[in-house]
Amino acid sequence: MAIEKLIFVYNANSGKINAWLDSAHKIVSPSTYNCRLCDLTYGVFKEKEKWIRFRESELLNSYVQQLQFLHIDEFEKQYRSKWLPKYDFPVILTASNQGLQPFMDARQLNAIESTTELIEAIKMRLN
Q1: Checking DSSP bridges between strand 64-71 and strand 3-10, what pairing results, if any?
Q2: Distance between CA 90 and CA 3 in Å, rounded?
Q3: Mean per-residue pLDDT pooled into runs of 10, the chain (127 residues)
Q4: Alpha-carbon distance 114 to 119, whole Å?
């Protein structure tokens, strides 16, 4: 059975200024950068090729109908509800008619050390 939607929520806010500040932070003090999901899917200036190949892969698309990538402010604007649980970011959620469910939480994402490990963790959870 396919997942309707996987929502990737970065622990950052949207916008060009925020993107520039995040890139600078990754260069100046990478050990204190607070979005592991960003680190795993993006380099300093662009999306990682390995991640692009995975998210565009037939394998992923056979399990997931839609991928959505949001920053905290975009997520809160789009999914705001008094019933929405408090999430620690970054987080990956599944979305369906039954609502949002955690797919990988911040603790799990923060423990991942490489893009390859992230891809393998996603594959394992999809199977």
Answers
A1: parallel
A2: 20
A3: 88 68 56 75 85 92 92 90 82 91 95 96 93
A4: 9
